[in-house]
Write a structure and sequence with these properties.
With 195 residues, the protein is mainly alpha-helical. It has helices at residues 5-25, 40-50, 54-66, 74-86, 90-102, 110-121, 126-138, 146-158, 164-172, 177-189.
Length: 195
Amino acid sequence: MAHRFPYYSVTLVGFLLVFFLASSCTTPNPRPPQPLIGGPTVNEVLKRAQAGDPNAQNKLGLLYSEGQGLPQNDLEAKDWFKKAADQGHADAQVNLGTLYSLGRGAPYSDHMALFWFQKAAEQRNALAFAKLGMMYERGRGVPRSLIEAHMWYSLSVAYGEKRAAESREAVAAQMMPGQIAEAEDRAKKWMPKRR
């Protein structure tokens, strides 16, 4: 009987090892859906969005994107932003462009990000100006240009986006005085494209 003991020990250890490995490979239970914040408020936004209200569509996109009151879902966010963006909602155009620039809920595409940022910039959206500044500063989808980046950041600041001032100053620190003057002149003369 003493010679069977090692066999039982090895079998028991093997069984416990298989059990442990199998249990660690199973997916954990998904977290339950987050409760709706304000219940009727989210439901009202949903109803208005489904009825075609671009403000509500953008708001619903934000709720999905941020996981506030609804489970976080970038695909749903993109769909709602797109519906509002197609109706000319500038904030939704920026939000949609941001998803493309990050590859969240949409394929990563600097080209599509630029398209939507430019659409919003045509409506003088301060955040769109800042996003375009970032694209030019980093050379994403466009040739890198500190002059263009400075111009867009300046427009963003002029239209109320205070955070763009830091980005503009960081870009200016890399520029010659003549380049800064050119960027400022471009910002003063900038006009959106006519449709």
